């Protein structure tokens, strides 16, 4: 291999690094990793590319749907492992599917709390392999992540939605949209989550995402104009008197932080895999990179293990998930520059792959909650107070 050349990692068969995660991916979605690996990175990452259709064809939408609702019923520890494997193959697919999984996890929790019609949606997601976009508040500087730009009011038997969500991953491929709303039925505003079929009149998609980074996640703008939703597709959530999250919100945030952390760790791991195979850096440097990444993954798995116990989640579980997310974020910020240096300048300039993966890993810090929003609440929680995220 010429100095600085990019190793053909798909041809390697004796690698242990990332093998446990890829084994989980192959167990639940057989053949998906192999099909993704056969595609050039640019093809995997482009809008309208084959990655999302391959995920659907493999049965990916059913991953978090419980087995009693005809889903695959994957546990949280396996889910974060699987998501790391996908992040190492296709960053855009990892980000987009995390938003789907977040929506499904919210539906599962809503059903466990209210025992409403959510089971029908879960079975439809599993049987019809539906993709659920997640329209929860993010991307608006200076505003609480719990605030929603989507306003809702009662109109007869229906709930009517107006507003926009940008960016909204899966905007082009979504079958359903799960969106947070501020509902005012005359007794004061309250938080709620509405599930909207993508074909509902008044739902439209508009260009928004201008970057080449993570373009395959389809994160454009979704607008809702006088969208009518039946009341059984609206789940009312809320905040405690101290503005702590309710059970549905808590579960959603825990899943989101852990799946996103695993996804972006996978992107950094793809760079580390190239470092390991290229063998340009010293063994000490390669080992140091791998130790940091594996340690971060251990923290993610540990936080995810609580979800598999089945017990109700509390603010201590959310705090642990946030610690894992920000720890992973810091690990990525340390490791990625070292990977680039270890691979050398020829690897950086001879292909877009290395620079692209590096650019993708930076985006974890832009997902909610930002460190600025989370810091005060985390400090308060560690001091014995309530964990408030905005």
TrEMBL record:
EC number in record: 1.-.-.-
Any GO molecular function: oxidoreductase activity
Domain of life from the UniProt record: Bacteria
Keyword Ion transport attached: no
Flavoprotein is among the record's keywords: yes
EC category name: oxidoreductase
UniProt keyword terms in alphabetical order: FAD, Flavoprotein, Oxidoreductase
Entry protein name: Acyl-CoA dehydrogenase family protein
